């Protein structure tokens, strides 16, 4: 079977369904023999990577994910076994789609990089990323290595909503896209323009909404893999070319997922291993942490339809490890210590909107100079974010605050549409460590609360250690707690627990966030000497 360099997945603003019931699918054997095999555990990544597009190039697997308003956008993940992943780079270097992504007079929260597509074209050994921005137009970026540099190849006036890019076996580029009405576009040989587009399928009212296209050619058949947000997955098949006609089959619906309290695995992509085995990598809605990737084996019926392999009627918590060649190396962990050495940020970091690159630097720590005068963290530029590792993890920051100025606010936040932070306030020449809660947005992502100080303590000297612990298990709201230290050894709890919201509508999960902004005038700075994410 030839997957034509597998593709991606998506999801959009739809009601979150309860993860109950079960879907039709083949059951994997259970018992001692099954348990004895080497296994992996779902979620394979307990971090927020949604709308996955997954593929294999040679012996290496790649995946792309949504990042909304975070910059750089569209992270590219890399793996050698489909289970252990690292962040290799970002396909969209900056969100240069308008001033709102710079926090310049407007804001881009929950816009930007939605479900998009990642593909590889063997004929020119080039990776392609394709996605629409703000329902206005589609952008196509290319690179010869996923680490970059990535550059914009073209802009297409048709907004390919939730697009899936297919590199056909004859090297033609096709895009499947749409919501409920699914269309296929053919691109020019160089990928710069649209040659034609045609509606190929209209979703029956009995199914509802289908979106999140992934486009494949397998054994001469064309497949469009679609999600029913947020509880189902369907697939279309054509034996008559990319423009159809297509027939539809349900892949899963209301399938119990592998994360207690989480949702139904959906909106992902299919990928084939070197040995010919197939897997489906989906995501599980698991707020407050976000949407977590999960992996399951897939078999095919004699007439060419995929079937997810179930365990006790559910998406398995564990499965046998994929049979793949020995990895050439261990992947880089997504957690651990960062001392901000070198000349650039490591790819696990993303800014809240585009940064002002004149006001930060790395090397002997991360220096954050104030870039915005505001009392609202949601308007503050150069807030640097890191995904939270589930189910629980702790971020600890060593901060040099000796260059802060009066009115400056710097620290470590649990950042989402309802946020809290621990950090430093410098006023009247004195510095206090404080915990602030009540930073909130409404459903249109306008600020409704800039925060209330709930605890404080004086600090002296020029360094402090700040700590945030986050419990992101889904279900009932779970706490985030804050503490500080003046020696890096003994930590003191500061303030009450913060209840992290688990509403899905912000899409992105909570993140740890480093910030430094002014409330009076620019000129101050802090230096992050060390940042660590640890798990119990």
Explain what this protein looks like in three dimensions.
- The protein has one helix and 39 strands.
- By secondary structure, it is mainly β.
- The strands form eight sheets. Strands 24, 26, 27, 29, 34, 35, 36, 37 and 39 form a nine-stranded antiparallel β-sheet that branches. Strands 4-25-28-38-30-31-32-33 form an eight-stranded antiparallel β-sheet, with no helix packed on it. It has a four-stranded antiparallel β-sheet with strand order 2-3-5-6, with no helix packed on it.
- A hairpin with a 5-residue loop joins strand 32 and strand 33.
- The N terminus is likely disordered.
Spans of at least 5 consecutive residues whose pLDDT stays below 50 are 1-24, 27-36
The secondary structure category is: mainly beta
Terminal CA distance: 42 Å
Summarize model confidence as the mean pLDDT.
Answer: 93
Q: How many strands in all?
A: 39
How big a fraction of the residues is strand?
Answer: over 45%
Total number of helices: 1
Helical coverage, percent range: under 10%
Largest sheet: 9 strands, antiparallel
Radius of gyration: 23 Å
Broad shape: globular
């Amino acid at each position: 079977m030839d997957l034509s360099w597998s593709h991606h997945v998506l999801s959009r603003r739809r009601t979150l369904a309860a993860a109950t019931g079960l879907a039709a699918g083949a059951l994997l054997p259970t018992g001692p023999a099954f348990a004895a095999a080497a296994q992996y555990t779902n979620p394979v990544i307990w971090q927020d990577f949604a709308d996955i597009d997954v593929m294999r190039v040679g012996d290496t697997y790649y995946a792309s994910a949504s990042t909304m308003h975070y910059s750089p956008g569209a992270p590219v993940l890399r793996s050698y076994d489909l289970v252990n992943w690292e962040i290799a780079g970002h396909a969209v270097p900056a969100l240069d789609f308008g001033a709102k992504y710079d926090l310049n007079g407007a804001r881009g929260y929950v816009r930007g990089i939605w479900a998009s597509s990642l593909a590889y074209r063997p004929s020119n050994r080039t990776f392609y990323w394709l996605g629409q921005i703000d329902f206005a137009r589609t952008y196509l970026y290319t690179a010869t290595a996923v680490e970059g540099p990535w550059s914009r190849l073209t802009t297409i006036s048709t907004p390919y909503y939730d697009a899936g890019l297919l590199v056909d076996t004859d090297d033609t580029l096709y895009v499947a896209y749409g919501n409920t009405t699914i269309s296929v576009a053919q691109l020019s040989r160089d990928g710069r323009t649209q040659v034609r587009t045609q509606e190929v399928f209209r979703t029956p009212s009995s199914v509802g909404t289908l979106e999140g296209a992934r486009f494949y050619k397998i054994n001469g058949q064309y497949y469009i893999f679609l999600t029913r947000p947020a509880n189902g997955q369907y697939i279309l098949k054509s034996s008559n070319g990319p423009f159809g006609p297509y027939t539809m089959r349900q892949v899963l619906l209301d399938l119990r997922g592998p994360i207690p309290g989480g949702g139904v695995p959906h909106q992902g992509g299919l990928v084939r291993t070197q040995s010919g085995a197939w897997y489906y990598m989906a995501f599980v809605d698991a707020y407050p942490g976000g949407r977590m990737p999960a992996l399951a084996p897939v078999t095919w019926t004699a007439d060419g339809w995929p079937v997810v392999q179930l365990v006790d009627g559910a998406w398995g918590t564990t499965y046998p490890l994929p049979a793949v060649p020995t990895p050439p190396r261990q992947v880089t962990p997504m957690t651990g210590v960062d001392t901000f050495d070198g000349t650039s940020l490591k790819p696990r970091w993303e800014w809240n909107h585009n940064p002002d690159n004149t006001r930060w630097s790395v090397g002997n720590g991360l220096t954050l100079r104030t870039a915005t005068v505001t009392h609202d963290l949601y308007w503050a530029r150069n807030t640097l974010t890191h995904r939270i590792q589930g189910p629980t993890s702790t971020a600890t920051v060593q901060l040099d605050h000796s260059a802060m100025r009066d009115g400056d606010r710097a620290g470590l936040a649990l950042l989402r549409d309802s946020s809290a932070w621990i950090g430093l306030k410098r006023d009247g020449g004195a510095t206090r460590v404080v915990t602030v809660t009540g930073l909130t947005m409404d459903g249109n992502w306008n600020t409704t609360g800039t925060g209330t100080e709930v605890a404080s303590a004086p600090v002296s000297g020029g360094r402090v250690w700040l700590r945030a612990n986050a419990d992101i298990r889904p279900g009932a709201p779970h706490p985030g707690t804050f503490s500080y230290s003046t020696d890096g050894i003994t930590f003191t709890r500061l303030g009450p627990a913060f209840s992290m919201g688990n509403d899905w509508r912000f899409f992105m999960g909570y993140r740890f966030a480093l910030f430094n902004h002014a409330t009076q005038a620019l000129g101050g700075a802090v230096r992050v000497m060390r940042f660590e994410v640890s798990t119990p």
